[in-house]
Amino acid sequence: MDTTEILERVSFFREAPGALQSNMLAAARQVKLVPGDRLFREGEIANGFVAIGRGSVRVFRLGASGREITLYHVHDQQTSLIGTLSALLQRPAIATAQAELETEAVLLPASALREWVATSESMRTFIFETMTRALTDVATLLEDVAFRSMEGRLASLLLQHFATAPVINMRHEDIAAELGTAREVVSRLLETYERVGAIALSRGRIEPRDAAILRALCDSGH
């Protein structure tokens, strides 16, 4: 994808007047990320506004214990609220954003973003929609942490992944980082799920065996 193709996938560009589209194209810089690359780091100021054309980015915080917990994910045609606010306000980001998949995006300078927020209705709407989505994701996370057991949260995560892929290729430590727990906890629960016939485990792979059992584990984990 080139810069124009990426921008054409996001609503703030498609809905902008022609002159503003030209300004955005002139200011945009294409960014290509491989898994593990970071868009911005907690404690640092994001160097611009990033719109994802294709890929997936995980936004997470690192706790005092050294464990990570995922706040939300950024997918196609989206941006990160935390990164946007950091660039817009020139304040350190409160979380880190890291590519999960090969990701193609555009980077727009913070100075231009501030100007476009002031003058473009499509840009303001896009950011408000981003705020709504991120706050909903974080509210759901808080509810899960407060009211659901790790058993139910892990089963729910597996079902979400199985809904989009036949096999999950994730290490136990990566799943633990997603849920904000220890790798040992995840490994123990996965082995339990395998014993009851819900999944099959192999090195770096988790395969579904019985979705009904996983759904029951979700329900019992409240």
What do these coordinates show?
The protein has 222 residues and is α+β, with helices and mostly antiparallel strands. The chain has two domains: 3-136, Jelly Rolls (Sandwich); 147-220, Arc Repressor Mutant, subunit A. It has ten helices and nine strands. It has helices at residues 3-7, 11-14, 18-27, 81-89, 110-119, 121-147, 150-162, 172-179, 183-195, 211-220; strands at 29-33, 38-40, 49-54, 57-62, 68-74, 96-99, 103-108, 199-202, 205-208. A four-stranded antiparallel sheet has the order 2-6-4-5. A three-stranded antiparallel sheet has the order 1-7-3. The longest helix is centred in the middle third of the chain and has 27 residues, at 121-147. The chain is elongated. The mean pLDDT is 92.
